[in-house]
Batch of 2 targets.
Target 1
Amino acid sequence: MQIKVPDVQGPIPLPDCTHVAFRLSTLNVMVGVEVHGPGVGTWLHVSYSLRGVDKPPEHKHTCRVRQLFFDPAQVVIAVFPPAAEYVNDAEVLHLWSRLDPAERLVPDLRSLDDEGTRRI
């Protein structure tokens, strides 16, 4: 699977060589490919925060990041771990997509309407 690289300011190489940073008009974005090993797989991890503002990004920002950095056919997830497992308290959001899925990661939770069309 290919990784999308948007036509925005960046990439800005980071010292660890596994992530790159981008500056969008209102967002700071960090993109990395992370190999977690057998059974867990390889993931595209995109972190993003608002530039110069101490509040979390809004839904419209999440949609923009998803559009810019992920293929439309990819399943993209946000993970909300138990509070005890949070790593930091920064106003940063994260999106993940498995790059080597053997099967669909998330079950199809849409239900069928009266016409037989799947809807959320």
Target 2
Amino acid sequence: MATIYRKQPRVPEASQQAISAVMARIAQLSPVEFADMQELLDLYHQTGSGDQDHAGVAAAIQELLYPQGLTATVDPSAVISPQTRAKLQRYQAQVGSAIRQRREALNVTQQQLAAKAAIQQSHLSRLENGQHRASGRTMYRIAKALRINLNLLDPGFDD
């Protein structure tokens, strides 16, 4: 049987560097993070590009690989209209209020919840005050720490 060799497409240098950087970061993941990555990749594969969850899963993968964020920044005012920004702020306030209400119902301090969710207390405070939007991964941790379904804190998630 003859072996067929296909000519491999030429990958641009910048793409090769990006792939190498991602692979190096994957090699640095802890076993727990690696398991999270596998689960996220399965979810990404299951969702179609038109599915609203697809972008959320991609963002969670990016956060897992680069929790400090990427170096490139985008000015939100350049891509988000004032109406959309207002909707986002209302949504963040709604999610933050749900987190606070559940936390207070359980008689848990911000410090205790932050420790259980493995986030900074100051980050939790900003979330509860609607000043910041949490990643899917962070919302999952908070919901787990509060022993509640994620979609009850953030209606944008379907469990």
